[in-house]
Specification:
There is one protein chain. By secondary structure, the protein is α/β, with parallel strands linked by helices. The chain folds into 2 domains: about 10-120, Response regulator (Rossmann fold); about 140-235, Arc Repressor Mutant, subunit A (Orthogonal Bundle). About 40% of the residues lie in helices and about 20% in strands. The strands form 3 sheets. It has a 5-stranded parallel sheet, with helices on both faces. A 4-stranded antiparallel sheet has the order 6-7-8-9, covered by helices on one side. Strands 10-12-11 form a 3-stranded antiparallel sheet. Strand 1 (about 10), helix 1 (about 15-30) and strand 2 form a beta-alpha-beta unit. The protein is globular. The protein starts with 7 loop residues before the first strand and ends in a 6-residue tail after the last strand.
């Protein structure tokens, strides 16, 4: 395998042997790898291009453990891939809701993980390249108090940077460039490159991402920006709360 650049991958694994196997495979693929324990999950997060986390959450402590992912999201917008047992579906949804971008069920083949990492990074770079291509038409998109800058892969509210995951930023950009128009679930799924045989699962993944995005951009709690269109998708339009 080859990569076009020396990307930094952070692996946070409680099981050191699993972590070492993943690290060895990713190093062979040309990545710079930092291996740390799951308790030091924030170490190196600022510099990482992608973060891999072993999910050690049980049904009883899901909120407290996934809050670490929330803390990562406060300092990094890098994609996060969790890997762990199939467990409870609600736990996997909680992980996505807290900021993870993908979840791989154990046992994970290191080669499969390397392929997943490569695919996620390629999609991210492809999105950035596409965003830069749109700069000639529109440097920034301003909707209400929200400013979306595709060229720098950043979004702001009242001048303050909004820390978004890659998928959240993709959704925000897609909705923003189609301001006032309905963007269907299928359009969002294609834009995020979601390939699920069950359309309901694709929709559920999108709903989780949009819910997180709303929490970050909508301080009123009344959906001033992103509006659900029953059975169809979403529309972005600034409607100030009364």
């Amino acid at each position: 395998m080859q990569t076009t650049a020396k990307k930094k991958i952070l692996i946070a694994a409680r099981d050191r042997e699993k972590g070492k196997m993943l690290a060895a495979c990713l190093s062979d693929a040309g990545y710079e790898v930092l291996l740390t324990g799951s308790e030091d999950i924030a170490k190196g997060a600022r510099e990482a291009s992608l973060i891999i986390v072993e999910d050690t959450v049980s049904d009883q402590d899901s909120f407290s453990d996934y809050s670490q992912i929330r803390r990562i999201r406060e300092i990094s917008g890098a994609p996060i891939i969790l890997f762990g047992p199939a467990g409870n579906v609600s736990n996997r949804i909680m992980a996505l809701n807290c900021g993870a971008d993908d979840y791989m069920v154990s046992p994970v083949n290191p080669l499969e993980m390397a392929a997943k990492v490569g695919a996620v990074l390629r999609r991210q770079e492809g999105h950035r390249a596409g965003s830069k291509g749109r700069q000639n038409d529109r440097e920034e998109i301003v909707i209400g108090e929200i400013v979306v800058d595709p060229g720098t892969f950043a979004a702001y509210r009242q001048g303050e940077r909004i820390m978004l995951t890659p998928n959240e930023f993709k959704i925000l950009t897609l909705l923003a460039v189609n301001e006032g128009s309905i963007v269907s679930y299928d359009e969002i799924a294609r834009f995020l490159d979601i390939h699920e045989k069950n359309p309901n699962r694709s929709k559920n993944i999108i709903v989780v991402h949009v819910s997180r995005l709303r929490d970050k951009i909508d301080h009123s709690g009344r959906d001033e920006y992103i509006h659900s269109v029953r059975g169809r998708g979403y529309r972005m339009q600034y409607i100030p709360a009364d």
